[in-house]
Amino acid sequence: MIYHAAKITRKSLASPTVMILELNIPTLTKFLPGQWVDFMAPPHEWIGGFSIASPPSDLPQLTLAIKNSKAKASTWVHTESKVGSDLRVQVGGSCTLQRDDEEHDHDNEDDDKTVVFCAGGIGISPVLGNYRYLLDQQKKRRSASPGKVAAKPTMFLYSVSTQDELVFWEELVQLHKEQQEADQENRSRMIFSLTQSESWDDSFLLSSAEASSTEEEDIEETGIELRHGRYLQEFLEFAPEDAIHYICGPPKMNDDAVAFLKAKGVPASNIKCEKWW
């Protein structure tokens, strides 16, 4: 794999523990949604691994969402990195819905299947990348065959410990709204769940809702379901047996999801799980 020269062009705190970095990488021309980068900041010798949150169409810009931790790369991002800092990055990873040889207008055998996305915490980065890719591909197929290609339903669960750790929620609300508008049967679902909090301040969704007479109607208009507790197993139970599952979260979440799906009879080929090492 080739290391590319990169420069930090923007740095912003998305939550108390998650830093967003936007990089400019002039020589990077391709990656697959859901892939990650090996990340170096010379003269430091450590290497960090972070999932890509932005779609390939944003190149040469690339976005990383990096959770604060004791890892040297993460600590450097949160405490030392600056706009203008020089980096070296290389792309890797194969846990993606898109094949490396797949043409954008090429139909494949999974096109008619429901896709189930499960993100836990900072695992939202690769999950969001694949969700963006799927919706973009569906939109292209509908544009190529107006009235002949129906929108395919998706299921999306995003679990975080507390509400202030919910990053990228504005984009998720907008993407789900577009999905609802395309899916006339309204079969798609998006759920935000808090695992360590018993209450939501649901006013954060109101700015994304269309005007209506009551707050309850406003929340419903967003199409987002707000839950409490560990909702993973109940969520997966509703998925069709032939659905494609894409999962990324803390190790226990990944392990529990994979074990549940295998016990349910879902074939391994329909389970794509991005693990943290």
Which terms summarize this structure?
6 helices, globular, Elongation Factor Tu (Ef-tu), domain 3, Rossmann fold, 277 residues, Oxidoreductase NAD-binding domain-containing protein 1
What does this structure look like?
One of its GO terms (molecular function) is oxidoreductase activity. Residues 1-101 form the FAD-binding FR-type domain. This is Oxidoreductase NAD-binding domain-containing protein 1. InterPro entries: FAD-bd_FR_type (IPR017927), FNR_nucleotide-bd (IPR039261), Oxidoreductase_NAD-binding (IPR052128), OxRdtase_FAD/NAD-bd (IPR001433), Riboflavin_synthase-like_b-brl (IPR017938). It holds the Pfam family NAD_binding_1. It is a single chain. With 277 residues, the chain is an alpha/beta fold. The chain has two domains: 4-92, Beta Barrel (Elongation Factor Tu (Ef-tu), domain 3); 115-274, Rossmann fold (3-Layer(aba) Sandwich), CATH 3.40.50.80. It is 26% helix and 26% strand. It is built from six helices and twelve strands. The protein has helices at residues 72-79, 124-144, 169-182, 215-222, 232-237, 251-264; strands at 4-13, 18-24, 36-40, 48-51, 61-67, 86-92, 115-120, 154-160, 189-194, 224-228, 244-248, 271-274. The strands form two sheets. A six-stranded antiparallel sheet has the order 4-3-6-1-2-5, with helices on one face. The longest helix is centred in the middle third of the chain and has 21 residues, at 124-144. The protein is globular, with a radius of gyration of 19 Å. The protein starts with a strand and ends with a strand. Residues 210-217 have low confidence and may be disordered.
